[in-house]
Amino acid sequence: METELININSINDETLKRAGKCIKSGGLVAFPTETVYGLGGDGLNELAASKIYQAKGRPSDNPLILHINDQKMLSRIVADVTPMAQKILTAFCPGPITIILPKSDEVPKTVTGGLNTVAVRMPDNDIARKLIKYADTPIAAPSANISGRPSPTSAKEVYKDLHGRIEMVLDGGNCHFGVESTIVDCTEDVPVILRPGAITKEMLEEIFPVVEIDKSIVGENVVPKAPGMKYKHYAPKAEMILVEGEQNKMPQAMQKIVNDWQNDKKIGLLVSDEVANYIKSDNICIFNYGKQNDLAQIASEIYEGLRYFDDKDIDVILGEGTTSKGIGLAIMNRLHKASGFNSINI
Ligand code: TXA
Ligand code: MG
After folding, report:
1. CA-CA-CA-CA torsion for 284, 286, 291, 292, nearest 10 degrees?
2. Residue range 116-170, pLDDT digits in tens
3. Residues 127, 34: contact at Cβ < 8 Å?
């Protein structure tokens, strides 16, 4: 199949209406959101959902998120909007957060990977919102990458992974946050974060007295409640090792590892400005993800950083860890998964 790439300058009501029709008639359209690009299909059409799994090469037990543009659409797809869910909607939606609720009968089990719950999100992006409106149906959309690869934050990366597999790609420029939405399970007594994102634990604690984090995220060896979190994910092509420890010791520590390894291995560095400017060695491939304390900037660069090394001739990527405060928890979660929990403590 030919994949049509709609250039950013050609995005208008007419092209978005056409994209909406494409989805309504069972086609697949990749589109920008404020987090990462999504691979969209009609969320109430079983055939469209199976096409999504196929295009991504995604295991069928890994459920999809339904993207909506108003509360009316929400009441169609969930059995009940609980007070906990309503509080999140009021405080953070539209925005980079996904809530898990019991599903309604209208939602096919293909979409929910066989579960009785459904993941719902109201994206904060004009192109995404208009696309949902014109498609006139909730849009099921996982991140628009081949399964296991880092999520795409630009249309160019979507096209690289998915051209020939889907009908259209809408180019909306670079995504604002750069990491996927926070997922909150609203089916328990207290909200539980199943995947950290830009709506942080600290932000949720401003509206709830108690907020829990799924144990799998903090490194405990339990099965994650979000099925997708159990797969090795976000993986660059080369082996990756995460270097963790105090920020101010990072430059010297990285230089020492580089010195020790350089003769045996071609090294790539995914590091902060502070480390990038300190490293004295030649022939080191460096991706500078920004200043150590600018976590928003690091989040928006992290997936591009992970993909950066794919066409470079290197054996190992050394990734520099961040703090786990705020959106740092989301960054560290993605880095841990990209490295398969392989890390060095300095
Ligand atoms: O920011 C985002 O959320 C992006 C954009 C495109 O909206 N989407 C995204 O989708 O990251 P995806 O499919 O890559 O990740 C969805 C995650 C998976 O880990 C999946 O297992 C989990 O959500 N999930 C979906 N439905 C669930 C459910 N009913 N219960 C628990 N986890 C669920
Ligand atoms: Mg994904």
Report:
1. -70
2. 999 999 999 999 999 999 999 999 999 999 998 889 999 999 999 999 999 999 9
3. no
| Residue indicated by tokens 């059409």 | 45
Which protein residues are within 6 Å of ligand 1, measured from CB?
A: 33, 35-36, 38, 62-65, 98, 100, 112, 115, 117-119, 121, 123, 141-143, 180-181, 183, 194-195, 225-229
- Those residues whose C-beta lies under 8 Å from the C-beta of residue 238, and which sit 6 or more positions away, are 268, 309, 310, 314, 315, 316, 317
Q: Are 202 and 295 within 8 A, CB to CB?
A: no
Q: Does the structure show a pLDDT above 80 at 233? A: no
> Which ligand 1 atom lies nearest to the CA of residue 229?
19
* 150 Cα–ligand 2 center, Å: 8
Residue 86 CA to residue 93 CA, distance in Å, equals: 10
Q: What is the 3-state secondary structure (H, E, C) of 192-228?
A: EEEECCCCCHHHHCCCCCCCEECCCCCCCCCCCCCHH
Instruction: Supply the residue whose CA is at minimum distance from atom 25 of ligand 1.
Output: 63
Angle between the 13-24 and 126-135 helix axes, to the nearest 10 degrees? Answer: 50
Residue 78: DSSP 8-state? B
pLDDT score of 222: 82
- What are the tens digits of pLDDT across the range 240-270? 999 999 999 999 999 999 999 999 999 999 9
Query: What's this model's pTM, rounded to 2 decimal places?
Result: 0.96
Percentage of the chain with pLDDT > 90?
A: 90
Among the residue ranges 173-182, 233-242, 292-301, 302-311, the one predicted with the least confidence is 233-242
Question: For tokens 């045996």, what's the residue?
Answer: 264
Of ligand 1's listed atoms, the one at least distance from the Cα of 96 is 1
Residue nearest to atom 3 of ligand 1 (CA): 181
